[in-house]
Amino acid sequence: MTPNKDWFESYTKVDGGQVLLGNNKLWMIVGIGIVRNKTHDGVERTLIEEYKKMEYITSVNQWNKKKLQFLGKLGVIESIKTKLGARLMSIFKKGSLGHLLDLKITPMNALVHHMVLRTLESGDDELKYMVNDHVFSFGLKEFSIIMGLKTKIDPSIESMTFKRGSIWTNLFLENKLVTKKQLEETFIKYDGCDEDLLLKLARLHLVENFLLGSQPTKVIEKKHIDMVDNYFVFDDYHWGRVSFDLTFKGLKKAPHRTSDGGNYPVDGCAIALQIFAFEIIGTTHIYANKIGDQIPRITNWSSTEQQTFENISTKVFQAPNVSLFQMIPTDEEMRKSYMVEFRDVEFNEEIQEEAGQSSKAEYNFDISELLRQNEKLLKQNEKILRQNDRLESEINDMKRIICAIHKKFFEDNLEKNKSNTNVSSARRTAEAQTYDQEEPMEVYLVWVKDESPIMTSPSPLQQEPAEVQIEVEIEEQATTVEGKEQENIEQQVEIEEQSAAIVEQEHQQEQENIETQFQILKKKKKRSKECTQEKRK
Q1: Between the N and C ends of the chain, which has fewer C-beta atoms within 10 Å?
Q2: What pLDDT, on a 0 to 100 scale, did the predictor assign at position 462?
Q3: Residue 78: in which H helix or E strand, if any?
């Protein structure tokens, strides 16, 4: 009881009469609600109101020390961490299931068994537990807060059809059906070099044998095996809802199995109920350590030792001054994408307004950054244009030099060809006259090497070595200059395209900013009008 109304998380006005407090002062009861407070560990919790006495499904005189069996095995996580190693684990953790590899808890079967014994008659969508005359609800919302998994169904994924993927073709080719035990054995024995296939096996193993735990002989849905080949579909699937549905069925049947002989198994991921007990029962902290305040809450707890049924009874549920807390999601948790189903209209509007202000800040930052980039690109463009002009001038000079060299080579060879032609004609005339004389005469034959045969164009093999080298170097330089010119032209075109894209992006963001501001002003005007009407009333 308190006179401070602002302490209440929820508040309902009532005409409840009067109450006498410890100072013998009479107070009027004006409302009943739920109070939020901060405990010694700095965590904000909410004290709940006390409910009337209700009956357990399992009668108290039938309570026993039977052991509950988790079919969603935590050992799966350790086997995955051992098999993958540090590098592949870092890849695995980037997905929506990655945070589950950070769990530091051990199953406390006796604690969950105590919770099962305290189960009340429940509906079709949530379970109710009564602890020391206080009733707690455990439904899809609480499961999502604990596990941090998506629960909203995506119709586009549900309507997809999948072909048989690499796991079928590489590992289960001869099997028409695959059981959970076969999957676990295949994962443990796999020693291939295909890392992608190993990651797919690890994801499927975590889902089937931890989140969807059941008997080892249970056949795995073919859709799940086919889906794992499509990473984005598998990662965005509503595994939270599928796991909760199976866990809900297992926990709902559990109270009816406590009177059977031997231990009783629970399908699904019953470890979530253990974390739920840590959150709502303060005395469980003697066996569990809160190691952080992260999201989701399953990563905040560590426990290393199993406890007996008697220890849990005396030190947790029968301890003096047992503190109980309602598990209420924080605003930060409600902003997570997997909590979208549980937000009310006002909270969604608040998130949209914050998103609009955030986009405005990002818009201003992006514009200034884009302007700086645009100015930098313009300077680069001017520099490239100047280089292009200089290279074009050098190319023209090279062309003139090459033309002059070719002209000189042609004129020199033409003169040599004319001289050689005259010498050859004189030689042939002298020989003809010698053969025509009647009296023999001594003839001395002298072989003259013809160094310059008649030719219409100079042969590359007969050019002067220095001149050939000069021409080749000039042609190579001209080719290099032409290549640079083409590269500069391509860079200029690319810069112009980037500038056009920046201008278009600026225009689009400006339009979005105007639309966002218009929506905010519209809402403010509506709120102002409502406030005015309330004041008039």
Answers
A1: C
A2: 43
A3: helix 75-92
* CATH 1.10.287, domain 355-424+466-531, yes or no: yes
3-state secondary structure of 444: coil
Three-state secondary-structure class, residue 8: strand
Tens of pLDDT along 428-485? Answer: 555 555 444 444 444 444 444 444 443 444 444 444 444 445 555 666 666 676 676 6
Evaluate whether 80 touches 205 at the Cβ level (below 8 Å). yes
The partner residues of 138 in beta bridges, in order of sequence, read 127
At 433, is the secondary structure helix, strand, or coil?
Answer: helix
d(CA 249, CA 212): 12
136 — phi, psi (to 5°)? -125, 140
Neighbours of 470 (CB within 10 A): 14
Task: Using DSSP, state whether 321 is helix, strand or coil.
Answer: coil
Q: Cα–Cα distance between 416 and 485 in angstroms, integer? A: 40
**DSSP string across 327-345:** ----HHHHTSGGGGGG--H
The 3-state DSSP class for residue 289 equals strand
Q: Which residues are CB-neighbours of 331 under 8 A, at least 6 positions away?
A: none
- Beta-strand pair 264-266/134-139: unpaired
pLDDT computed for residue 424 by the predictor:
56
- Buried b / exposed e over 289-308, threshold 16 CB at 10 Å, is eeeeeebbbbbbbebeeebe
Which amino acid does the sequence have at 406?
H
Residue with tokens 């073919």: 222
Domain ranges of the chain: 1-38, 52-342, 355-424+466-531
Between CA 272 and CA 281, with CA 278 as vertex, the angle to 5 degrees is 130
Mean pLDDT of 484-513: 72
Per-residue model confidence (pLDDT) at position 272: 96
Which one, of 153, 147, 151, lies nearest residue 329 by Cα? Answer: 147
